[in-house]
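User: Hey, quick favor. My workstation is busy. Could you predict this chain's structure for me?
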Amino acid sequence: MSRWFKRHPASELFLFAQALVALTATRLALYWVPLPALRRWVWRTLAVGHRLPEGRRLPMARVLRCAAAASRFMPVSSTCLATAIVVQALLHRHGYTVQLRIGVRIPAADQFAAHAWLEHEGHIVVGGPASVVEQYKALPDLEHLIA
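Assistant: No problem, here it is.
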């Protein structure tokens, strides 16, 4: 872990810390807080309404790498939904518009499975690979319901 910290600039370390706290809080809150309220809280907490100026924005790959690193150090395991909500907010703050997708499948009798992922310009950026996402039937766009 210390090597990771030594190799990255302060902007990435700050993003890592934001992601770690937001992922952990979001994961725990999913049990008690309705999705629309939770998403609003995450976006407000991460100041998504105030996009970073051009010079302070990180490339998408770095934002995704910081979020992935944070998920590995969480005190609780994350879920695809918690990860998608937080990473969507972080990417939006850095100037990227990604769509939250939720899909469902029924793998066997009386079982239900759901998965959340993020898409950017038709490509899966979180929650992939495509072979996993293809197993789920995407629900209609729900963002307007949870915004």
